[in-house]
Amino acid sequence: MTPAVEVRDLSVSYGSTRALREVDLVVRPGRVCGVIGMNGSGKSTLFKALTDTVRPDRGEVRILGGSPAEARRHGRVAYVPQEDGIDRAFPVDVREIVMMGRYGRLGPTRRPRAADHEAVDAALERVDLTRLARRQVGQLSGGQRKRAFVARGIAQDAAVLLLDEPFAGVDRPTEAAITALLRELAAEGRTLLVATHDLHGLAGLCDEAVALRNRVVLHGPIEHVLAPEHLGTVFGLDEQERR
Ligand SMILES: Nc1ncnc2c1ncn2[C@@H]1O[C@H](COP(=O)(O)OP(=O)(O)OP(=O)(O)O)[C@@H](O)[C@H]1O
């Protein structure tokens, strides 16, 4: 089976800062993989490599067997940001955010067709935001905004979703609702990578996890990575103790 995500010997730097070194990672379709590590451990850089927004020093990245540029062009990969990067004062509503997931499919007129509107309606329904479809994005709660961006990925029909801190700032019921939704997406065969520095909530969401400290320090089933004896490896406590 072609892996959903395949990273071989990937190294990325920003000037003299080596953000990722010699990373190998294979994630099969339909899996939810946590990408865990402290601030600065390279999680965002890995996502940038998967979305073709950073140039690696060396190594190879494949999304469903193709290059990240192809995956991006065909809308196979969607990014669900932690902070949405949209000015809260910017006049855009939930429906328009979700419609952005269809942009890659719109013709030269950029005018959405019936199929695009239907896909947006279905995505809104799925994340339970139908009733807030015309709400300005600046007037949403953090949890609602996250769901709007997950809906954008659903409308895009992306096979691979990259989620940045999906539980940051959301309450427990919202966390449970987001977890259930993400598990459903995985059950449909989509692949999810979930970046976080917080281990909370991962056990119920992820099948597996990779721990980064600018390189892969651990990768395996979620219960293995979260085992108490591995926390030192995941967070680098073993190195601190040796100092
Ligand atoms: N544009 C940039 N220019 C220079 N250095 C950068 C840039 N982006 C990231 N870095 C550095 O690369 C390393 C990895 O950063 P990255 O953002 O990938 O980590 P992260 O795990 O996503 O962190 P966080 O949890 O804080 O978001 C860090 O040392 C960071 O300071």
From TrEMBL:
Keyword hit for Repeat: no
InterPro entries named in the record: AAA+_ATPase, ABC_transporter-like_ATP-bd, ABC_transporter-like_CS, Metal_Ion_Import_ABC, P-loop_NTPase
Pfam families for this protein: ABC_tran
Gene Ontology molecular function terms on file: ATP binding; ATP hydrolysis activity
Residue span(s) of domain ABC transporter: 5-239
Keywords in alphabetical order: ATP-binding, Nucleotide-binding, Transport
UniProt entry tagged with the keyword Repeat: no
Family listed: Belongs to the ABC transporter superfamily.
UniProt-listed PANTHER family: IRON TRANSPORT SYSTEM ATP-BINDING PROTEIN HI_0361-RELATED, METAL TRANSPORT SYSTEM ATP-BINDING PROTEIN TM_0124-RELATED
Name by which UniProt lists this protein: ABC transporter, ATP-binding protein
Source organism of the structure: Aeromicrobium marinum DSM 15272
